[in-house]
Design brief:
The complex is a heterodimer of chains A (96) and B (639). Chain A has 96 residues and is an alpha+beta fold. Chain A is 15% helix and 14% strand. In chain A, the strands form 2 sheets. In chain A, strands 1-4 form a two-stranded antiparallel ribbon. Chain B has 639 residues and is of the alpha/beta class. Chain B has a domain of 99 residues: Fumarate reductase/succinate dehydrogenase flavoprotein-like, C-terminal domain (Methane Monooxygenase Hydroxylase, Chain G, domain 1). Classes of the chains: A alpha+beta (96), B alpha/beta (639). The complex binds flavin-adenine dinucleotide (FAD) and iron/sulfur cluster (2 copies).
Chain lengths: 96, 639
């Protein structure tokens, strides 16, 4: 059996769906434990906050944010190409 | 960097139980709970973490076809037969009868465990979709009231709490890898499963008297994007149809796997996040829509009669008993066709101008609030990335129009070869016990053929768990073959031996391209056979080359192996059907029309001694659904 120790290699992609605010995050790892894809590396292992080692695998469910006890500690953002457009109704609809 | 978890690849552990459940989504959790309530010792393996895992981990907003809820005017039998006939018979009458008969029981259970199923605070008091006596909230057909609006974000935590209370042994981060079987009286019987920890690579042999498979359906077969693979499919990225793959390897029979549809959902490429663009389906039913000039898009009933009020969008047409809408319904036949805006092409012909928008600003207040705030908010993947993020970007449903793309709900038009197992795709063949051709192996949820939806997953999960518990009463705890287990363990861990080799993405991308080329919109024998050859060559030449540096990558490598198995299963199912079949979206350029009548049936495929064996079951093999349901609901009756 191969004895080379496991290593953690971050696999970057073209987007960064997740960001962590080190001033707000308390390092409880609730977000890490919520993610069914295991996209996140726990706080304390490499940085003081969790981080996304496999950001390309995120399916944008928001469970990490929903389980976080501190509002704003973790933020989820869809890629720019996925930001749907909305406009003021007044600019389109001419009401009489 | 240092791996943050332990290295346990040297460990081979063993655990035993009465009922082993594979997959901890809605169906798996319900199976585990039902078996534990029957007094059985239960282990559940979940690859992610059951509290928020599965398609509905972050919620869902519609509980469909709960025909025994106090407001419903449609009986379970009527609804089951409507769903069956609506799909031309290529539908799962057994699954639908369980769903329509027991969905309301399951909802009441979930409420007892802490899930929210009614408007307890009176937020929507007086609204036409709310029953003011019970606080239940209805969707779609407000007259017939078969589908409920629910607070699905609360459901998975409630279920995991219940499992804990019942003493279910939950193994999160454990990938079910290999179904263990042995011979019992000349039949193949399930006796457990090998599991792998996705963080430590510990291998555990789980032995059980009965097994429930609830690992949803295949994905990443035709659609794959190596940069953002998590965006390319509708269902959770790690959920790729391992249940189908392990079943196929073990000789389980499948049906309707030749059915695939032109892609409908993704959030990659041309698509946008589901429920995040202007549309009037599902979560957004029946939002007002306007064109680029602000002209409302007309809603019409099944007879083309223009509807003048918002309320009429939620009512059957004159002379119609009820209409059908929901997850398994695409374009219903006249009998059950509900209110809808004019077809896209007709709107363009009449001069309506793109882009279209969803316009909640002009809707009655309670309809606006229930779409934006309840439904968008409780639906899966909407609470944070849609409701919260759009609100932060300044979206106000009283002020803004949300743009629609492509043909609306799907937000993009896919090519014919960009296919998906979607709607009500194929899956495992089963009987009234939800037992498969493998003795003591039961199935539930989206793993069943022609199945979809949350309420269906909970109801069939509970049924499968009950029946597995009764099967466990009659089954022995069989030993696993030591040599076979050791060989399997070596093969499971083998990719960790390769430190230089292929990235799993390269192989997944190759499979997807092969399936687009050889199993696209129009099929024929030559293409299918060449596709099969190519898929098999990937297994022999490429799969063993995948290199992994840690257990996370090992899990991804296993998934690619499963996607290869599933592709083989799909190609074999396509080869087995010789004649085109529109009900299955199955088109051949070499269609053998002489087989049309003979093939109006469920064709099955399974592997036996390395060979593919085909079979056939009549479309009405369930028999009379009332008789079948009554006969099987209280016990395990093997015909
Ligand atoms: C965005 C979205 C919105 C939806 N909205 C609705 C709705 O409003 N109403 C409705 O009725 N339906 C809805 N659905 C469909 C519904 O969520 C599914 O039909 C239902 O969740 C299926 O349940 P399941 O238990 O079969 O599968 P899932 O709930 O997906 O569970 C499968 C589980 O198996 C696990 N698993 C997979 N492979 C393995 C393995 N090898 N080992 C261990 N575990 C494994 C997965 O991690 C997952 O947790 C929606 C689906 C999506 C994606
Ligand atoms: S959004 Fe979902 S998939 Fe992405 S990191 Fe958070 S929990 Fe995981
Ligand atoms: S859940 Fe929130 S506070 Fe806890 S580690 Fe994650 S981001 Fe930090």
């Amino acid at each position: 059996m191969n004895k080379t120790p496991f290593s953690l290699e971050t696999v970057p992609c073209s987007v960064s769906p997740l960001s962590f605010d080190p001033d707000k995050c308390v390092g409880c790892n609730a977000c890490v434990e919520a993610c069914q894809i295991d996209v996140l590396v726990p706080a304390g292992a490499v940085k003081s906050t969790p981080f996304a080692a496999w950001p390309g695998e995120c399916w944008y469910c928001g469970a990490c944010v929903m389980e976080c006890p501190v509002s704003g500690a973790v933020t989820l953002r869809h890629p720019l190409m996925n930001q749907a457009r909305f406009v003021e109704a007044e600019s389109v609809i001419k009401r009489v | 960097m240092q791996w943050p978890y332990q290295d346990e690849r040297h460990v081979l552990a063993e655990e035993t139980c009465d009922v082993l459940v594979l997959g901890g989504g809605l169906a798996g959790c319900h199976a585990a709970i039902a078996a534990a309530e029957q007094g059985k010792s239960v282990i559940l393996l979940e690859k992610g973490a059951a509290r928020r895992s599965g398609a509905a981990g972050t919620g869902f907003d519609h509980w469909e076809m709960a025909c025994k809820n106090p407001g419903c005017l449609v009986t379970p039998e009527e609804m089951t037969m409507a769903l069956y006939q609506e799909q031309g018979g290529y539908s799962n009458a057994i699954g639908h009868m369980i769903e329509t008969s027991e969905g309301w029981d399951r909802l009441q259970d979930i409420e007892k465990w802490g899930g929210k199923i009614r408007d307890t605070k009176g937020e929507f008091a007086g609204a036409p979709f709310r029953d003011d006596k019970t606080g239940l909230m209805y969707a779609y057909d407000y007259t017939n009231r078969y589908t409920l609006r629910v607070w699905g974000t609360t459901f998975k935590p409630a279920m995991t709490g219940r499992m804990k209370a019942l003493g279910v042994r939950l193994y999160d981060r454990t990938e079910a890898r290999t179904l263990l079987t042995c011979g019992v009286n000349g039949r193949t019987a399930a006796c457990g499963c090998i599991g792998v920890n996705t963080r430590t690579a510990r291998v555990t042999v789980f032995r059980a008297r009965a097994v429930v498979l609830a690992m949803s359906r295949p994905a990443r077969v035709w659609l794959f994007n190596a940069d953002t693979p998590g965006l390319c499919e509708f269902r959770p990225f790690q959920s790729v149809g391992t249940g189908h793959a392990m079943g196929w390897r073990a000789g389980m029979a499948f049906t309707m796997m030749e059915k695939s549809v032109r892609g409908e959902f993704s959030a990659a490429g041309r698509s946008f996040p589901p429920y995040g663009t202007g549309n009037n389906h599902n979560t957004w039913y029946a939002a007002s829509m306007v064109d680029a000039r602000g002209c409302p898009l007309p809603y019409v009933d099944r007879d083309g009669r223009e509807l003048t009020t918002v309320d009429e969008r939620y009512r059957p047409a004159p002379g119609q008993k009820f209409f059908l809408k929901g997850g398994v319904i695409d374009e219903p036949r006249y009998e059950w066709r509900g209110p809808e805006t004019l077809p896209f092409d007709e709107l363009i012909r009449r001069g309506y101008r793109l882009p279209f928008y969803a316009d909640l600003t002009s809707m009655p207040d309670e309809e606006r609030r229930v779409i934006w705030g309840m439904m968008v908010g409780q639906e899966a993947k909407t609470r944070v990335p849609i409701y919260q993020n759009y609100t932060e970007r300044g979206f106000d449903p009283k002020k803004h129009l949300l743009q629609s793309y492509g043909n609306g709900w799907q937000s993009a038009a896919f090519l014919d070869q960009e296919r998906q197992l979607f709607g009500a795709p194929g899956g495992t063949m089963h009987d009234w016990n939800l037992e498969t051709n493998i003795l003591n192996a039961f199935v539930a949820g989206d793993m069943l053929f022609a199945s979809d939806c949350a309420g269906h997953a909970c109801a069939t999960g509970h049924w499968a768990g009950r029946h597995a518990a009764w099967a466990a009463n009659e089954a022995d705890l069989l030993p696993a073959d030591r040599d076979a287990v050791e060989a399997e363990r070596r093969s499971i861990l083998a990719p960790l031996e390769n430190r230089d080799g292929l990235d799993w993405r390269e192989v997944n991308a190759a499979v997807s391209k092969a399936m687009q080329n050889y199993c696209g919109g129009v099929k024929n024998d030559d293409l299918l056979l060449q596709g099969l050859q190519l898929i098999r060559s990937f297994r022999t030449d490429a799969l063993g080359q995948i290199a992994c540096r840690n257990p996370h990558e090992l899990t991804r490598a296993h998934e690619v192996g499963d996607i290869l198995d599933v592709s083989e299963l799909i190609l074999e199912a396509c080869l087995a059907r010789r004649c085109s079949c529109s009900a299955l979206s199955f088109e051949r350029s070499d269609s053998d029309e002489t087989r049309r009548d003979a093939e109006r049936a469920f064709l099955t495929v399974k592997k036996s001694d390395g060979k593919v064996v085909t079979g056939r079951a009549p479309l009405d093999y369930s028999g009379d659904v009332t008789t079948g349901y009554e006969r099987h609901k209280e016990g395990l009756i093997r015909e």
